[in-house]
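pinning this so it doesn't scroll away 📌
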Amino acid sequence: MTEETTAPGGRLQQLEREGDVAADYLEELLDIADLDGDLDIDVDGDRAAVSIVGADLQHLVGSDGVVLDALQELTRLAVYRETGERSRLMLDVSGFRAKRREELAAIAADAVSRARESGQAVRLDPMSPFERKVVHDAVAEAGLSSESEGVEPRRFVVVLPE
C-alpha cells in the first residue's frame, strides 16, 4: 500500500476510487446490455458500496442472488485490474442485499432466542459468505457467539448458547 492509502484520509480516498471505478464498469455493462439503471456510490464502513436501482433489474439479481454474486465478483476484478488492489466492494441491485440483511437479522434473532431458551446450539441452513457475516454480526450484537461449519457451498452458521 502507498502512503496515501494508509494515511487517515487515504483509505477513504481509496474506497471512493474503488466505487468510481466500479460505477464506470457497471455503467458500461448496463449500456451494453441496454438496461436502465441509476448508480449510487457510497462507502459503508471499510468497503466501497455501489447500488444499481431502476426498473426491472431482477435478472441482474437472479435466483437467490447468484447472478448478483457473480456480477459483484466481476466488478471486484474490474476494480483490481484498474487499481492493483483487492477490493471488498459490495454490490446491491434493486435493494436485494438490503432486504436480505433485514431477513437475516430476523433469522439471527430467532436463532439467538432459541439458543438461549434451549441451552442448545442452533444450526442454520447453508448460507453464502455475505449471509454468514451478517448473521455472525447480528449474533455478536445480541451477546452470543457463533461459528461457521461445513464446506462451501454447504457452509452454515451455528449459534452457540451462553
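📌 and the second one:
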Amino acid sequence: MNREELSARMSGASPDHGLLRGWARGLLLRAADGEPVPAVHHPLGFVCLPVERDGGAGVCLHVWSSRLPGAVPTTSSIHCHSWDLVSYVLFGEVGNRLPEVAAPEGRPTHRLFQVVSGPGGDELLPTDRTVRHGAGSAERFGAGAVYRLPAGMFHESVVGGAGDAATIALGAERPGLPNLSLGPLGGAAHRVARRPCGGEALRTVARGALAGMGG
C-alpha cells in the first residue's frame, strides 16, 4: 500500500486494523529474515524504517525497542515537526507530552535550534529565539489508536510499559515551517549522524516488534 491507501485505512471512525497490521507485519518479516530493508537509528531513540518519500510526503514504520541502548539527544527530546503527523499504534503505548513553549516572561529556559535534515544526518543550528518551557499536558494512545500532531506543535514522545512499541507514521510537509528542537541557551551548532540499523540489530528489533504484535 502507498501513503494515500494507508491514510484512507487510518481515517474514519474505525481504522482498518487488519490491513494496517498486515502491511506492517509484511515489512517486519522481511527485516526479521535479513532482507535488505532500509532502517536508521533515529536520534530520538527509535528505529525508523523509511518506506516512501514523495516530495513533502512520506511513510515510515517507527519501532521503539528495549533491546537497544537508549538515545541521549544533543539538545533535548522536545521538538516540533515541519510536517503534519498521523500515526497508527501497532502495539504498546505511545504518548506525547505537550509542554507549554512560549516567549519568555523573565528569564528564558531554552533556545530554539533549527534542525536541517540531510541524507547523512541532521544539522542543529541555534536560532535567535529563546523561550520558556512549562509543564503543559500529556496524552497516551494504545494499540489500534490513531493520533495526530499538527506541524509546529512542540511535543516529547513517551513510550509506556517496558519501552516497546511501534507505529505507522505518515507525514505531510507544511511549506515554510521549520523543524525545531529545544536546546540549551548557550548551545552551539553541531551535526548529528543517523546511523544505519542493519544486520543483527535490525533483525532483533523486527523480531521484537513481531512478537509485540502477536507473531
